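Morning!

As promised:
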Amino acid sequence: MEMLELLMRILVYGATLSGIYSLIAAGFTLIFGVSRIMNFSHGAFFVLGAYLGIAIINGVGLNPYLSTAISILMVGLLAAIVYKGIMSPVRTQEVMVIIVTLAFALILEQLILLIFGEHGISYPSMVKGVISIGGVPIPSMRLFVLAIALTALILLWILIGKTRLGREITAASQDVEAATLLGLDVDKLFLTTVFISSILAALGGALYAQVYAANPFLVLKSLIFAFAIVILGGLGSVKGSVISSFIVGYILTAVIVLYGARWSELTALLIIIAILILKPTGLFGVKEL
Amino acid sequence: MSEKVSRRRYVKYAAAGVVVVAAGAAGGYVAWQAGKKPKAKNEVVIGVLAPMATYQGSVQRDAAALAIEEVNAKGGILGLPVRMVVGDDKLDADTGVAELRRLVTVEHADVLTGGYSSGVMTAEMETMAELKTVFLADASSTEHPAKVAGNYEKYKYWFRITQNNGATFAFDLIDMLDMLRTNGVQVNKVYIIRDEHVWVEAVEEFLNPMLKEKNVEVVKNVKIPRGYTEYEPLIIEAHNLGAQVILPILAISGTGDVLAKHWATLRLPVLLAGHDLAALDLGFWERTGGACNYYIFIADGGVVQTAPPTSTCASFIENYTKKYGHPPEAHQGYGAYDAVYLYKMAVEEAAKAGERDPFDSDTVVKYLEKIANLENPVELTRRIAFYPPGHEKKWDHDLAWGDEYVRNWVAEWIDGKQCLIWPKERANAEMKLPPWFK
């Protein structure tokens, strides 16, 4: 019975964390997969989703649902501006892209620190109450967050796989020149991808602040975790990122529950390294010819 | 013949070179000494050195500014106007050391107040000792007074004024558990959640034996890294292990708001009571959306804002609120405010006693020890006394702990307010248990 309770705790709590990680990781790998842009400002969009949402709730007095929707759209627009202004001019130079996007992320971190301070901020609960699953008390909010994250991923899958826009994005990711020759506006497709991926990150941030709390230092921490998860899943593979998010989320939760909180991040990172030693391209990555 | 001439010329030029170098060195030395020598004193400079991007830092600057304004309105210190200079240590040891040096050697600070991080303070104490500048400080590590005890002549310029050291948290945590028992809560098992940081070792060194004496079992002791947020599994585990109290010993983790949020969401019959720096912030209620209601904590620094311990404290809170539009954001404000006044008192006492240079650091140290001692604490926003040199626990120049001095009072968040709930003689509210705790 005790073992069953432990397993249930790991299963449910691990799912929430994994769901949030999958949003940020899917977005990060989507940009890279389509446009070969290593967007190091992705963590900043994650955190901004939470901070803008809270600012709208407190400043304008809107409800958390509407505030979240507005904040993620604002982050998407900001990301589009950043792409046009900073990333697009240096898109073909990978190192420059990393430098400028990282610089933007650090500037944003400092701005958030100056405006909001270093303390964490939390979303008001969108869903209250606790339900019991297998004898384990689970806040309804966690199930809500998981549901939203999974819905977003399903919508992303439908968009990429079943819509014309998705097919165009796929075409551009496979061969930019051929896509251009076919009359596709490739730069517009990249811009759209950046917009979508930053919306995913911002949604992840708002959901994270719902369950935990967002703080300025998550700008880099979330980027590091997203990057590690994406490498594990295979750079450019959305399916790989989602699966590896769940692997990492469950490793973290299992270690917290079974061995102790202080070992969780170290264990997760060690396992990621071990897997990459065995499979350097990641779980679903493709060897470059 | 030409060889002799060239040798003579060589010696002549060499001698001339030596004279030039010696003259240059002498001139440089004279200039250096002149630079070192203080100009005739026409002002008193107080340096505030703290992490200015945090509440804990900025409140020290603002509180010191208020104190200095008041002092200047009454004629300054020995008739001299007081000026404040500010340094930002950015929670980094190297930056703190550089800023301390700048405040003393460039800005000519006569005295320093500030601090927050124990690690940064440890580094800064070396520069403080080198520059022989009095530092009325914050931070909680017992390592700092131990340095004074280990080498008094070198480190005597350091005094802790803002709060008691971390080891005293153990005494007040035990008092808190006694209070719970007095109020009918059967406490015999606790679940500790603590920072994975050296500062907690000093607390546990005293806490663990006292818990044993009180027959309180520690069912689990969980170390968490900075930024940790997954508290729900820990709270569930605490309940499953039969703990009546989850006892946080937190300051560095920075996620006390998440702990409160998760505890209030789960509503398991286990109390949340301990030391959490996050709970001290006045903004904690807003940040947790009220989830911190019924959170019991010990208040570092000896002030719970709704129950100021002295009339000076009540006035300070009122004047600070008038000036800045809100009450002091963190307990470090009381320390900085007291530091300005205590320094003033020490200097004036020294002048009254006929000291040749009342601003001299060695003199100030002597008078700080004299006026703020265990027999006669100084009443400012708190009752300030320092342990004397040679203290049995090596707490030399540390802030004295006790009912008649400064204590980490037991407080609780009740319906949006921080209330002092223990000891009874000082309490301004009765402890309230969460409705889900049976």
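Chain A touches chain B through 34 residues (CB under 8 Å).

Hope this helps with the figure draft.
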